[in-house]
């Protein structure tokens, strides 16, 4: 356990499933109180909170903010602070995807992706950062993607947003470089989440092959290790970035991509 983390408060967007939920559990295992956000049924949220509270003996809070709405984002930060204490750790994880050529890309879809994947991260930072500066300690980790560093076809909105996240990370990290607040990005490749599992199954159905064969075909296109990143591995990296050992890591974009961006 990292000695500096017990009793800290983390707000993690998109944390009712996938990467965000894994990060929530990893931080909770370090004694961090957890602010949850994401789309889920009330009974699912209750189950997640009970699991984290009973297993890790920490407090939790849930806010169902629609991250496209700036007033709801502000409320989420404020209400989390009221319930758990001022935010020490912010993990901007929420994101959506849509695949289409630029010519045929729906304008509203483009705007939604920018709003959730980029603008929401700016707003959470805007509202949580003053709390961190007041204590001269804080951690902001923005979940970008390899698509924050390189591009793929038919993903113009996602690639634009993720490149923006890396830029936001660098700019804000420089603004607070002389303080005890660090701001960094994590850029994963293919991560085994329900979203990716759905894409793999669609390929399996399309080509009439097994799920395992479809997974290999998908990974072979980009990820030299031909092995997906696990949500646990990402959670471990993010937990490290929250530790005092990472206090001089500022404005970095960490890849965890099985060699994708080394090509």
From TrEMBL:
Pfam families: adh_short (PF00106). This is 3-hydroxybutyrate dehydrogenase. GO terms for biological process: monocarboxylic acid metabolic process. It comes from Paramecium pentaurelia. PROSITE patterns: ADH_SHORT. It comes from the Eukaryota. Belongs to the short-chain dehydrogenases/reductases (SDR) family.
């Amino acid at each position: 356990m990292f000695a500096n983390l017990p009793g800290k408060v983390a707000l993690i967007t998109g944390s009712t499933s996938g990467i965000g939920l894994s990060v929530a559990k990893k931080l909770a295992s370090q004694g961090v109180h957890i602010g949850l956000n994401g789309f889920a049924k009330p009974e699912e949220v209750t189950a997640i909170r009970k699991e984290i509270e009973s297993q890790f003996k920490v407090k939790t809070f849930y806010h169902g903010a629609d991250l496209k709405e700036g007033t709801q984002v502000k409320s989420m930060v404020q209400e989390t602070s009221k319930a758990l204490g001022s935010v020490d750790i912010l993990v901007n994880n929420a994101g959506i995807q849509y695949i289409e050529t630029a010519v045929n890309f729906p304008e509203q879809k483009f705007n939604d992706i920018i709003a959730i994947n980029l603008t929401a991260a700016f707003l959470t930072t805007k509202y949580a950062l003053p709390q961190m500066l007041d204590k001269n300690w804080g951690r902001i980790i923005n979940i970008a993607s390899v698509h924050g560093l390189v591009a793929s076809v038919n993903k113009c909105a996602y690639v634009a947003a993720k490149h923006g996240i890396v830029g936001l990370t660098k700019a804000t990290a420089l603004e607070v470089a002389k303080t005890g607040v660090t701001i960094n990005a994590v850029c994963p490749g293919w991560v085994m989440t329900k979203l990716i599992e759905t894409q793999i199954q669609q390929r399996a159905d399309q080509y009439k092959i097994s799920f395992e064969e479809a997974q290999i075909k998908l990974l072979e296109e980009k990820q030299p290790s031909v092995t997906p990143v696990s949500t646990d591995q990402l959670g471990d990296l993010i937990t490290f970035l929250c530790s005092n050992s990472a206090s001089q890591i500022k404005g970095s974009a960490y890849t965890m991509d099985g060699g994708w961006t080394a090509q």
